[in-house]
Automatic annotation (TrEMBL):
Similarity comment: Belongs to the CCDC90 family.
Record key words, sorted: Coiled coil, Membrane, Mitochondrion, Transmembrane, Transmembrane helix
Gene name of the encoded protein: Mcur1
One GO process term, biological-process aspect: calcium import into the mitochondrion
Organism: Promerops cafer (Cape sugarbird)
Location in the cell: Mitochondrion membrane
Transmembrane segments: 160-179
Pfam families per the UniProt record, alphabetical: CCDC90-like
Full protein name: MCUR1 regulator
GO annotations of cellular component type: mitochondrial inner membrane
InterPro entries, per database record: CCDC90-like (IPR024461)
Length: 180
């Protein structure tokens, strides 16, 4: 262990001021022991560069794990929304096909009874148009709700990621402050 003062010079100084050689050496020896004890206490709270690098690598690996989890979570939620959207599209196509089939049936029946059923056909078309408009409105509403939910999930993911990054930075700065 290195000493940061000249022990022999201190012994000589003490002797010049009236202490015996033995008393001077005992005093210097006590000072060296006190300094060594204090340095041991200080070194006990310090970390080495290797320990600091290990801790930094651990924090970085935790951050990478969190990023990976966030990406997986975002992809899984996006996939779920995409599959839900596909289901809605299929249902919409089935509804449109059913409506088209109904229109075809009504048109065929109306061609046979054109003169008698002219006013009835107009009424059916009006009802079908209202049904299609309502269906389109419902679909538009559902799509808007899905977009809103997707944006909400994106914002939640960004908030979580930002919180995680700031937390990791805070921990890293805390470690840095402890080491300094």
């Amino acid at each position: 262990r290195r000493l940061y003062f000249d022990t022999h010079a201190l012994v000589c100084l003490l002797e010049e001021n009236g202490f015996t050689t033995q008393q001077s050496e005992v005093i210097v020896s006590a000072l060296v022991k006190i300094m060594n004890t204090n340095l041991d206490m200080i070194y006990k709270d310090m970390v080495t560069k290797v320990q600091q690098e290990i801790a930094l690598q651990q924090v970085m690996s935790h951050i990478a794990g969190v990023k990976k989890d966030m990406i997986i979570l975002e992809k899984s939620e996006f996939s779920a929304l995409r599959s839900e959207n596909e289901k809605i599209k299929l249902e919409l196509q089935q509804i449109k096909k059913q409506v088209t089939d109904e229109i075809t049936k009504v048109s065929a029946d109306n061609k046979l009874n054109l003169n008698l059923e002219k006013s009835r056909v107009k009424e059916l078309h009006a009802q079908q148009d209202r049904a299609l408009t309502q269906t389109d409105r419902k679909i538009d509403t559902e799509v808007a709700d899905l977009k809103t939910m997707l944006e909400s999930h994106k914002l939640d993911n960004i908030k979580y990621l930002a919180g995680s990054v700031f937390t990791c930075l805070t921990v890293a700065l805390g470690f840095y402050r402890l080491w300094i």
